[in-house]
UniProtKB/TrEMBL annotation:
SUPFAM superfamilies: DHS-like NAD/FAD-binding domain, Thiamin diphosphate-binding fold (THDP-binding)
Signal peptide bounds: none
Stated name of the protein: Acetolactate synthase large subunit
Domain Thiamine pyrophosphate enzyme TPP-binding per the UniProt entry, residue ranges: 415-554
InterPro entries for this protein: DHS-like_NAD/FAD-binding_dom, THDP-binding, Thiamin_PyroP_enz_cen_dom, Thiamin_PyroP_enz_TPP-bd_dom, TPP_enz, TPP_enzyme_TPP-bd
Superkingdom in the source lineage: Bacteria
Region of interest: Disordered: 1-26
Any matching Pfam family: TPP_enzyme_C
Length: 565
């Protein structure tokens, strides 16, 4: 250990002193100190006997606002919603066994949608791990379950807790965002240690695409008669949202988006060609003929999943470049001509620079009016198929300001919204694109409202999905969150019932529901609640809701046709 020499007074002997050891901290304090250093301002969760050292440290430090939930699944979904809107890690705090495994569904969804969600949970006492002797909350291979869901680090030394928590926060903000789990044995969490302070690791800059590949891609797109852009969540995370619009205008190319990419280009742009999602049911793919003319394309920040391509039926050209942080996704679903490994923002900047160098006179023969007409025709087809559904979408759009946030569950109304609800910026349309999990809408909307407290937030759900996590209404009431919730009630798992009817000659089983009175349900929690007589009342109801000090629930009894083709 280093020593220091103190200068003695005249005539006094020299003395040496040893620096004071670091202040003692519990494992819980080390975790919380790391969260504070990592910039975490909010956390969602449930206190249990195993994670009380964390909650005691939260109480003492007072720097992180906590939100108690009614189920651990709700806590992780709220962390997901927070991460989607804030663009920074969402944090959930849970306990051992069922506390942790209840977060598996949201973690799997966050993995699919590339979101930085950190779940911090506990494990049994260190000497008993793997012994399966029946300790409280002990599961068979809890660590294996969490590792399979999202990756998990088991921290077995209290002195390592601050370092490992900071490392997790840094890792999920490096490269492609991913969720993570930390597991801490309860005796490690309660232990007091003199561990030295640890700094937040520096987050490296994302890679820049290869210059030669950028040049080839720019020329390929410039020489195409019908270039096309296909963008996903990676493009929507770009800090400079004007880049994509400039790229589309420079190339005179329509921009298709995945569900996660909605808002990457404002829907009021004439080059915004709409979302590629189509329901997996039906005899045709339902894509506009205009899209099939593309002779070269660029994919930006999209995995080209089955959800975004209708099981890979989306017509993309043979000449296809892919710009993405994750090279492993390139060529997985569609063959690619060029691989541009890097983040969307730097890649688009380089492409724009190269296109400027090549000159502004490209070969594109697209007419923006053709793209606008194709999109209008798609809306008209939806309106003819189910006018009530499009009326709901129109009312939502009329009520929500441009910066407002719509959090969708899985329901027929939400399917229509995916395709027809227009947004003008990223992080304003929230949807479980990868997992398609029922119960997503309400807790994710709560997390979004915490991340954007001055922004109007609306949750759109069906009756079946809403009741998966409807008890989280208590959290919205407790913290006076002014979000609005529209429950489209058809007393059924409507989409599944429709699929049964269509595919199995009307043989319907276990998809008809006996529901509560949703107005009474909302009022029982202390929320404002009322029943709407029709879709035309949605806009007025929502505008009133956002002036209240707490959530508002609106029940709309309506049967909607699904968007089958």
């Amino acid at each position: 250990m280093a020593t220091t020499i103190e200068q003695p007074a005249a005539g006094a002997p020299a003395t040496t002193t040893t620096p004071a050891a670091p202040e003692p901290r519990t494992g819980g304090e080390l975790v919380v100190d790391a969260l504070i250093k990592g910039g975490v301002k909010h956390a969602f969760g449930i206190a249990g006997v195993h994670n009380l050292p964390i909650y005691d440290a939260l109480y003492q430090r007072g720097a992180i606002k906590t939100y108690v939930t009614r189920h651990e699944q709700g806590a992780a979904f709220m962390a997901d919603g927070y991460a989607r809107v804030a663009g920074t890690p969402g944090v959930a705090l849970v306990t051992t066994g069922p506390g942790l495994t209840n977060t598996v569904t949201p973690l799997c969804g966050a993995w699919s949608d590339s979101l930085p969600v950190l779940v911090i949970g506990t494990a049994g006492e260190l000497p008993l791990l793997g012994k399966y002797k029946g300790y409280l909350h002990e599961y068979k291979d809890q660590h294996g379950v969490m590792e399979a869901a999202a990756g998990s680090t088991l921290v077995t030394r209290a002195a390592d807790l601050e370092k490992e928590t900071l490392a997790a926060l840094a890792q999920m903000q490096t490269g492609r965002p991913r969720p993570m789990t930390l597991e801490v044995p309860i005796d490690v969490l309660a232990e007091t240690t003199h561990a030295a302070q640890t700094a937040m690791p520096q987050i490296p800059a994302p890679p820049t695409p290869d210059a030669a590949a950028v040049k080839r891609t720019a020329r390929m797109l410039r020489e195409a008669k019908y270039p096309i852009l296909m963008v996903g969540g990676g493009a929507a995370r770009s800090k400079d949202m004007g880049l994509l619009r400039r790229l589309a205008e420079t190339l005179r190319a329509p921009v298709l988006t995945s569900i996660s990419g909605k808002g990457a280009i404002p829907d009021d742009s004439p080059w915004a060609a709409g979302c590629t999602w189509r329901t997996s049911s039906g005899p045709t793919d339902g894509y506009p003929d205009a899209w099939r003319k593309a002779d070269a394309g660029l994919v930006i920040g999209s995995r080209l999943t089955g959800m975004s391509t209708r099981a890979w039926r989306l017509p993309l050209p043979e000449k296809l470049a892919h710009l993405d942080l994750d090279e492993s996704e390139m060529g997985k679903s569609y063959p690619v001509t060029e691989r541009l490994v890097g983040d969307a923002e730097s890649g688009m900047r380089l492409l724009l620079d190269e296109l400027d160098r090549l000159g502004s006179d490209g070969a594109s023969q697209w007419d923006a009016a053709e793209i606008v007409a194709a999109r209008r025709a798609d809306d008209d087809a939806g309106r003819a198929k189910c006018p009530e559904a499009l009326q709901i979408v129109d009312q939502l759009r009329a009520a929500l300001p441009e910066h407002g946030i719509l959090s969708c569950d899985q329901s027929i109304a939400c399917y229509w919204a995916v395709r027809h609800y227009r947004v003008t910026g990223p992080r304003r349309f929230l949807y479980p694109a990868g997992s398609a999990a029922l119960g997503f809408g309400l807790p994710v909307g709560i997390g979004a409202q915490v991340a954007a407290p001055n922004t109007p937030v609306c949750v759109l759900a069906g009756d079946g999905g809403f009741l998966f996590t409807g008890t989280e209404l208590a959290t919205a009431v407790q913290y006076e969150l002014p979000l609005a919730i529209v429950v489209c009630n058809d007393n059924a798992y409507g989409m599944i019932k429709a699929a049964q009817s269509m595919r199995y000659s009307g043989r319907v089983l276990d998809t008809v529901l006996r529901n509560p009175d949703f107005v009474a349900y909302g009022k029982a929690f202390g929320a404002h609640a009322e029943k709407l007589s029709g879709p035309d009342e949605i806009a007025g109801a929502l505008k009133s809701a956002w002036g209240r000090k707490g959530p508002s629930l609106f029940q709309l009894d309506i049967e909607l046709l699904p968007p089958f083709h």
